[in-house]
Amino acid sequence: MTVSAPSAPTAVIATGAYTSASRGRGRGVTLWALNRADLTMRELATVELEDPSFLLWSEDGTLLHVVQETSPTRLTTLRVAADGAGAEVLGDLELTGSGGCHAAPGLREGTLVVTDYASGHVEVVRLDEEGRPVAVLDVCDQDSYRPAREGHPHQAVVLPGTELLAVSDLGMDRVYLYKQDPAGTIDLTGEISAPRFSGPRHLAADHESRTVYVACELSGQIVDFTRIEATAEQPGPAFSAGRPLRASGRDGENRPSHIEVSRHENHLFVANRGPNTISAFSLGMMRPELVSEIEVGAEPRHFARVAELMLVAAQEGDRIDVLRWDGMRLGTAADPVPAPSVACIAPRP
Question: Which stretches of sequence are listed as region Disordered (predicted)?
Fold first, then answer.
């Protein structure tokens, strides 16, 4: 998630943290004020919700959609005050699946797409005119695609420059591609095959989705996929795989989590759990080239950028790392901010 530099030196940041005894020590959703001048983060308000593992702002920044990794999954929408000093529950909806861990805007207005990691479902949710979740429009069971495997969809992303919704499935070693009809329902239209037992978790693409980069949790690698132009023999979407690349330059086990392409599409950032680092790759050569890597708190699950700053959710380190990217290397910008079991970071647009 990239946020343009705001005119004011202060940005509102939302974080989600695991709360249940078996998973974490957090309090739910917290709103922060990030002062970009003195590089401090001040807590503004907290909404106590169970296991909010992913957050998504509405386009205008007035609403915050919260995916709760519960059984069943819950989707809760908060109306956030203009100054970020408070929030109220606008609506909530119990979904079909369990273990929800991600949400993205659908291709059709007034819809959200939620991935249920535990149950293997992808769900389309309808929002009313105020933006509250009111109904489940469609449910796809990705377990059914490969009966010998268990589906674990982790992320849904609209591929830029296309009419495709991409869902990375860690259990199936696939990125499934969907189209969404005007009514909001989704239909499988293609797939990207990742290496066997690689575990695709999150993905990022350039502005035309000519290249899609996938962070593979089980193999500790990045795989790049190049889009192939449609032909009469292959009319649907298709991608060819490049050679897998290690996501970290450090030795030992690595379980990459989040991945993003820089605003100018000349660098790629990856969060690495195991070595507990953020790595930066140059995209100027034929293959991504590691150019910088910096240590952060334990188990960096997610990160987000605010202009030149990068905020890292170190889940087991109970902290937010504040980094700076100068265009060539990553550096520490400020002391870490205490944040127990933080799982997701979402700057207000």
Answer: 235-256
Rounded Cα–Cα distance for residues 114 and 108 (Å): 14
Q: For the chain, give every domain's residue range.
A: 9-347
For 290-313, b where at least 16 C-beta lie within 10 A, e where not — what string? bbbbbebbebbbbbbbbbebbbbb
Tokens 């998630």 correspond to 1
Query: Which pLDDT score is estimated for 231?
Result: 74
CA atoms of 209 and 96, how far apart (whole Å): 31
Q: How many helices (H) and strands (E) does the chain have?
A: 0, 30
Six token digits for residue 271: 């969060």
- Residue 318 phi/psi, 5-degree rounding, is 55, 45
Helix (H, G, I), strand (E, B) or coil at 168: strand
Residues 6 or more apart whose Cβ sits within 8 Å of residue 160: 205, 206, 207, 208, 209
Beta pairing, strands 200-205 & 153-158: unpaired
Q: How confident is the model at residue 8 (pLDDT cuts 50, 70, 90)?
A: low
> Is the pLDDT at 307 greater than 50, yes or no?
yes
Q: What are phi and psi of 143, to 5 degrees?
A: -60, -30
Helices (H), the chain: none
| Residues 278, 269 contacting (CB under 8 angstroms) | yes
Which among 229, 225, 125 is positioned nearest to 175, based on CA atoms?
Answer: 225
* Angle 121-305-52 from CA coordinates, rounded to 5°: 35
In this predicted model, what pLDDT tens digit does every residue of 325-345 receive, in sequence order?
999 999 999 999 999 999 999
User: How far is Cα 253 from Cα 174, in angstroms, rounded to an integer?
Assistant: 22
The DSSP annotation for 173-192 comes to TEEEEEEE-TTS-EEEEEEE
Q: How far apart are CA 258 and CA 255, in angstroms?
A: 10
- CATH code given to domain 9-347: 2.130.10.10
Q: How far apart are CA 319 and CA 205, in angstroms?
A: 28
User: What b/e readout covers 78-90, taking b as 16+ CB neighbours within 10 angstroms?
Assistant: bbbeeebeebeeb
- β-bridge partners, 127: 133
Q: In Å, how far from its chain's centre is CA 205? A: 13
